[in-house]
Every structure is written in C-alpha cells, then in structure tokens.
Specification:
The chain is α/β, with parallel strands linked by helices. The chain has one domain: P-loop containing nucleotide triphosphate hydrolases (Rossmann fold), CATH 3.40.50.300. The protein has seven helices and five strands. The longest helix has 21 residues. The protein is globular. The protein starts with a strand and ends in a 7-residue tail after the last helix. The model has no long low-confidence stretch (mean pLDDT 89). This is Gluconokinase.
Length: 180
Amino acid sequence: MVLVFILMGTSASGKSHIGNLIAQELDVPFIEGDDLHSSSGIQKMKSGIPLNDEDRKPWLNAVKNEIINVSKSSSKPYIFVACSALKYNYREFLRKVPNNDNIKVWFIYLKGSKQLFQQRILERQNHFMKAKMLDSQFDSLEEPNQDSEERIIVVDVSKEADKVKEEIIEKINTISYDVI
C-alpha cells in the first residue's frame, strides 16, 4: 500500500517548501506539480491570466500519471505531491486511481490567510505565479471539509515551516490502515 499525500492550497501556502522538507526527512519521493504544467499554462500565469478548468485538465492528468509512475518505481510507503487542487472535483479526480487499490490518496490542506500568502509571494523570486493572481486562487478555492470529504488533513501554515512539517509527520503517523 502506498499512501499519497497531496499538499494542496493556494499559491504561497508552502506546498513545495513543506513537501521538500518532509520528503527529505522521511526519505520518500516528492512530486512537484508546478513542473508538470504545460508551457502554455505557465505562460498564461506569467501573463497574469488565471487558468480555467480546461487549462487544468491536462495538468491534473499529468499529476495523476506521475503519481502512478512514481508509485510503480518506488518501494517507499509514502509519496508527497505539491498540487493546488483548489476545487473539490479536482481532488476527486486525483483520488481515483484507476485499476489500483494499492494507492490511497490523502490531501493535506495548507490553510492560511490571504494576507500571509500575499506577503510570501512578494518575498519570493523567480516564480511564475504573481501576487495579483492570488485573488483568483482564493476565488476558486473550495476549502476541503474534514466532515464531508474523505481523507483530508487540515494544517494551519501560519507557523514556521519546521513546525508545520513536524505537525504533518505526526498526523500522517496516526493514520491507521483501517481508516484509509
């Protein structure tokens, strides 16, 4: 059984940074969803144009295919993925891995305020997502609800990255196979 943990949330929530920290500490694979965007999608975002559902369809397919490929080539119990997965139907699409009962997908929602993420965007360099795009991401965000959506972990990311990493590792270690 491979547990796939998709770190989800808006831009600047820390998906890539936290994912890398966890993957290094646990010595497990990490998939960077941003690397799977098409060049036209990246160009669109660089130009300040939000992606729509049609733009995201091939990207979400690429993320799912990468999860399947990595799960076949890795002997590790976990795979971590950075992918915004802002909408419920995106998360449902990624949860359903065809013909494979050996992969269970969980989402870790990196929750924080728009103000915090705006500040982080302004501080980072060389990223295609610009500060003005954050509003469109919060507009698209359908926050996961632990009561009505399966396999969700919510983590407040207003603390230091190491604290967030520790909290996530602690939470995934409490997942027993009877709840997956």
